[in-house]
Every structure is written in structure tokens, then in C-alpha cells.
Amino acid sequence: MSAATASAAFATEKKLALWHSLIAIVALFLGVLYGLLQALEHAGLNLYPYLQPFIMSYYQSLTLHGVLNALVWTTFFITGFLTFVTAKSLDKPMVYPKLSWTAFIVMTLGLVMAAIPLLLDLASVLYTFYPPMQAPWYYYLGLTLVVVGSWISGWSMFATFLAWKKQNKGVATPFLALASLITMVLWQICTLGIAAEILTMILPWSLGLIAGIDPQLSRTLFWFTGHPLVYFWLLPAYLSWYAMMPKQAGGKMFSEPLARLAFWLFLLLSTPLGFHHQYVDPGVPPAWKFLHAILTFSVFFPSMLTAFSVVASLETGARARGGKGWFGWILKLPWDDPSFTAQALAMILFAFGGVGGLINASYNINLVIHNTAWVPGHLHLTVGTAVTLTFMGILYWLLPHLTGKALWNRKLAVAQAWLWFVSMAIFSRGLHWIGLLGAPRRTMLGVAFDNYGTSEWRFASLMTGVGGTFLYISALMFFANMLMTALSKQEAKVEMPVAEALHTEAVPAWLNNWQPWLIGTVVLVVIGYGPVIVDSIINIQMTSPGFTPWK
Ligand code: HAS
Ligand code: CU
Q1: Which ligand gives the minimal distance to the CA of 334?
Q2: pTM (2 d.p.)
Q3: Residue 547: beta bridge partners?
Q4: Does residue 299 line the site of ligand 1, with CB under 6 A?
Q5: Separation of 357 CA from ligand 1 center, angstroms?
Q6: What is the largest CA-CA distance in the chain?
Q7: Which of 479, 394, 382, 475 is nearest to 17 (CA)?
Q8: Where are the domains of the chain?
Q9: Tens digits of per-residue pLDDT, 430-452?
Q10: Within 13 A of 514's CA, how many CA atoms are on the CB side?
């Protein structure tokens, strides 16, 4: 296909990416408002009594925050972005564009269906919706539709890939397409857990067709999905760090085979890890908890590959721009480019989030931090920064690329990224600290001060409040830039950044062949989960009625 026809043909993918991004940004916009309320509460300023009947409780607010920011913002952005990247990277439009649009409509309908009970305070079950807390059936059906819609989007991408493969026999899949497809396959495999949980247990139970549920088995199925979910969020950011940012920095991909290996390893290792969220659950045998602990440490490895390789790629760029010295080159990175800056700062905080992850993963040390405020400290460095600040950085080039309009205010965008970075460092430092002091997560800390609070608690919690308030201001700066760019009349031609490889060696066949990796993935999942799930089914206790403790 000639370049001109290809770019005209990508009109559908551009529209898809734009619509997905729009919903994602609106979800983020609403979600961070609830986040602000929680941060203020942690600082001792409890606004919830004044917000009724719009927000009935801390738990409603926390659920809306988690669902909108962790689930909706990410899933919508990722689905649109990966569809677009796959088409561009294969230089082939979606072969079934109507399938992608159907997917989008299913996801959006699901979102509306889940939003209604959330806003009515009927589904304040937090974003993990652990039974026996119970929401109305249509809440779960809505969530299911969001997931099914994202599956359909994936099928449309796979169909396009297969059509491309037929026309390109023996050609290695371009890295960006491969990375997008691996992410989508990982998602399809890992969401089988949540699908089984909702379809076989939660839906019939919330519809009243069965009287009770087994909370332990539902948690296990939830975390079967819940852990790899974090790599579904992370890998689109990695794809940008590996293959887009080096171009923005004026450099090249340090090693393309290594980048491919990292993505295959994530596919292989992401799923059989969920028990690291259940170290204290009584129904899981210790041997399996230990196995998942070991596997969690092994998935640390592809992230270390990423850290070294991405930094090396950026260094090639900085040295090409005249950078010198062991660390002096860092100054020559394009810090005036908001897209680059946001992502580079996201990486730096992710290093801390990753180290925290190792602490969480350590079977015995996990007991110190489990269910404390440390955990939201960790998740804001990872999904709240590595992922969210990177997606913001991507949107700083993607929105101009999709709309043909110049980014409204580049300086504001650079300032926004720095403000997010500094505020998040303060915010999450506060949460980690107070968590170590024993403060529980998912709890109104302002109330706890009167009962257990020490001055140390108050100070750490105040950091969270102050950091969270500035994070909110940073988010507003981001939204203003998105909105004003969309409304702007100033045209600009911004291309998708795609970095070349530093060495153009042929891709080894084993890094381009799905079969061994898929077989390995299934085998590991069967070993990591099979016996425990079979045992839980044999000993199933469908006895617990539903509860609505937030009422
Ligand atoms: Fe996690 C809990 C373990 C990564 C998200 N995690 C959570 C929860 C969330 C979450 C949402 O083992 C809470 C769930 C809930 O509500 O209960 N996590 C890990 C480990 C990793 C990890 C070992 N988590 C993530 C990522 C997330 C995420 C990624 C979202 C996107 N996590 C846990 C455990 C728990 C947990 C337990 C349960 C805790 C409990 O008890 O409840 C690892 O994958 C991390 C590896 C990452 C690295 C960092 C690599 C650094 C890079 C950047 C380098 C660049 C630099 C600077 C240094 C090793 C790639 C660049 C320089 C320039 C000049 C630009
Ligand atoms: Cu996990």
C-alpha cells in the first residue's frame, strides 16, 4: 500500500483511537475528583458529610475513584491506542473495522450500565468487588460487557494480523505490532478468571438464582485476572518506552530482540502470580503461595531488562545530541518536549514502585504491609504514574496526531508532568510511610487519628493530602491542554514516533513464533493454578449471602 493511501485508510483507526481516548480522559477527569476528596480526608478535612446526596460515603467515592481511574481510563485508552498502533505498525488498516466499532459500543454500553448503580451508591463494593459484598446484577453485567468489548477489539486486531501474515510470509512482525498483540493476548488469557468468577458465581448469585457464594474461590478467580491486569496496563507504556521514546530523544532502540524477549516473557510469566495478593488467605496452600512468590520474582526480570535497555536507548539519543560524561548526557535529553518529559519522569518513579513491588512480593515481608496504606502508595507509583503519566505523555503527541491540531500549550504540559512527578513523590511517600506505621488502607484516616493517631501519623497523612491536592491541580492542567487542543484552530502535522533499531540484525525465529510461548504460558497457568482451583471446586462452599456494609 502506498504511503498516501495507507494514511487515508487509517482514518477509521484514528477515529477509534480518538473515541476511546475521549471516554478514557472523561473517566480520568471524574475519577481524580474523588481522589482529591480521599486525599483531603487523609489530611483531616472530611468533606463527605457536605456532599450528600451526590456522594453518600467515603466508600462510594473510593469505588468510583478506583473503577474510573484504574479500570476505565486504562482499558479504554489501551484498547484504542493498541488498535491504532497495530494498524500503523503493520501498515494495514483493520480488516473488520465494524468489529472494532462493535467492540467500542459494547464497552461503552457496559460502562453506562456499571456507572448507574455506582452513582446511585448501590455498588460501593470497591474496584475489586470482593464477594460477599454484593452489588446489583447489572453492575457486574456492565463490567463484563466492558471486558467482552475489549476482547472483541482484540479479535479485530488478531484478524488483521492474520491477514497481514498471509501477505507477508516469512517477514518478522514489526516490533510495535508484536508488542500490541502480545498485550492483547495476555489480556484475553488472564481475563478468563474474572469471566469465570462473574458468569458462574457472581451473576447467578446477584440475580438471586443461587442463595450463596464462595468468597474464597471468587477471590482466587479475581486475582487470576487482577495481577496480570497490571501488566495489561504497563505493557502499552513499555511499548512506548522501548520503541517510541528513543525516537523522541533522537536515538535508536538499543536492542530490538531484547525488547521482543521482554514482551514474550511477560506473556509467559504474568498470569500464575495472583496468590501474591492472597498470602494471608486461609484457603490457599502455602506451597502454592511460595510458587507464586518465586514466579513473581521471575517477572521482575523482564522489567530489569526494560530498565537497562530503555535507559541505554535514551543514552544513544542524548549522546547523538552532544551529551557527554557518565551522567551529563541526561541533560541533553529533550526535556522541553512534554511527551518525552512525562514519560521519563514516569520511569523514574516506577523504579521506586518496582522496588516496593519486590517488598510486597516477599512472602514474609508482605505481612508487614498487606492491607495497609503502603499498598495504595505502591499502586500510585505504578498504575498512577508509570502508566498514567506515560499515557498522558503519549496523548501529548497522539491527540495532535489524531486531530491534526497543535498541542495547545507545550510549556504548561512540561510543567504538568513535573508537578505530577513531585506531587506523586510526596503523596506516595506519605502513604508508604503511614502504611509502615500500621495505618490500614481503604479506611478514613481522619477518623483513626482520634483513636490511634500519633503526630507521625498526622504528618505522613498530611503529606498525602498535600501531594494529592497538587496531583489534582496537575490533572486539571492536563485536561485543560487536552480540551484546548481539541478546540484549537492551529494546525500541525505530528507523526507517530517510531524508533529504528540500533543494530539491524535479523529477528531470531524463536522471538517471532507464537507457538512455544503460548504453550509455555498455558502450561505455567495450569501448574500455577490448576490444582488449587480444582481443590477449591471440590470443596466449594456456596454459602455466603450478599452484604451491603456501606449502607
Ligand atoms: Fe504491584 C499490589 C508486586 C508492579 C499495580 N500492585 C498492587 C496493587 C496494584 C498494583 C494496583 O507481590 C494493589 C491491588 C489491590 O488493590 O489490592 N507489583 C508487584 C511486583 C511488581 C509490581 C513484584 N504493580 C506493578 C505494576 C502495577 C502494579 C507495574 C500497575 C501498573 N503488587 C505486588 C504485590 C502486591 C501488589 C505483591 C500485593 C500487595 C498486598 O499485600 O496487597 C513488579 O512487576 C515491578 C517490577 C518493576 C521494576 C522497575 C523497573 C524500572 C523501569 C524504569 C527504569 C528507568 C529509570 C530511570 C530508573 C523492577 C523499567 C530513567 C532515567 C532517565 C534519565 C529517564
Ligand atoms: Cu500483583
Answers
A1: 1
A2: 0.97
A3: 133
A4: yes
A5: 5
A6: 70
A7: 394
A8: 11-171, 334-348+366-500
A9: 999 999 999 999 988 876 666 66
A10: 12
